[in-house]
Write a structure and sequence with these properties.
mainly beta, Immunoglobulin-like, 14-stranded mixed β-sheet, single chain, 34% strand, 247 residues
Length: 247
């Protein structure tokens, strides 16, 4: 009996070791970002040294309860950082890319877009009409939209530098994101950015809005596990973001 238990324990530990590069399945998922000794060139080409040591995390959570097939969509991403930026590399396989809304501030979530959520101090809570956190919608033409304290959508292109390349059904989105505190004011000439440091904890999530020629997005696939019936809460509630630790 004792020998059998020891064998079981060894097998359990070996399985845990094999999965050391997988994300924590707790609610919400935990993420970490490796520091970039050299900032990546934001060109949509995943050949920078920082991506070699970063962990792939999945985008695999159904946030609007519309299942998809592997042929229709699959996504994963990596995170890196330096003192000035959070860097994201997203690999998206999508059989159809569309942008049917000419006005980038109206129904931008119903076009194909990458969405990055960031909460600088991981305070959680409501951010629907304030800058307690940001929900950046990055369009195919690189326009970046989010809702401001006036309840209207605004462009925040200066927060995000992004390039996308495509080969077949596979796109690489490479992003450099500046991080702002909840004291950010729309219209202010200068809003200071955060100087990032090792062991800083932020709130983070990423998602993809997928449309295949419908009047509205058909799928919304996120990175964090959201409890309850209403999983499309990231644009309102920063509490569903996962903890991101800068390593």
């Amino acid at each position: 009996m004792r020998l059998g238990f020891l064998v079981f324990l060894v097998l359990l530990l070996s399985c845990s070791t094999e999965k050391k590069n997988e994300p924590d399945g707790a609610l919400p998922r935990n993420f970490s970002a490796t520091k970039a000794n050299t900032a990546p060139e934001i060109d949509g080409v995943p050949d920078d040294a920082c991506w070699d040591t970063a962990t792939w995390y999945p985008m695999d959570q159904d946030w609007i309860n519309k299942p998809w097939s592997a042929e229709d969509f699959s996504g994963r991403y990596k995170i890196s950082w330096d003192e000035e930026h959070i860097y994201v590399l997203a690999e998206i396989q999508d059989d159809t890319l569309i942008d049917i809304h000419e006005d980038g501030l109206k129904k931008y979530w119903d076009d194909d877009c990458l969405e990055i959520f960031i909460d600088e101090d991981r305070s959680g809570g409501n951010h629907q009409y304030n800058h307690n956190a940001f929900a950046y919608h990055i369009a195919l033409d690189y326009k970046v939209a989010d809702i401001g304290p006036d309840s209207l959508a605004h462009y925040y292109d200066h927060h995000i530098h992004c390039k996308r390349t495509q080969q077949g059904n596979t796109s690489y989105w490479e992003v450099a994101m500046r991080v702002y505190t909840d004291e950010y004011l729309d219209g202010r000439a200068e809003n200071p950015t955060v100087i990032l440091q090792k062991n800083k904890l932020l709130g983070f999530a990423i998602a993809y809005c997928d449309n295949d020629h419908s009047t509205e997005r058909e799928h919304f696939i996120g990175s964090t596990i959201v409890e309850g019936e209403d999983k499309n809460r990231g644009w309102i509630d920063a509490g569903i973001f996962g903890p991101l630790t800068l390593k």
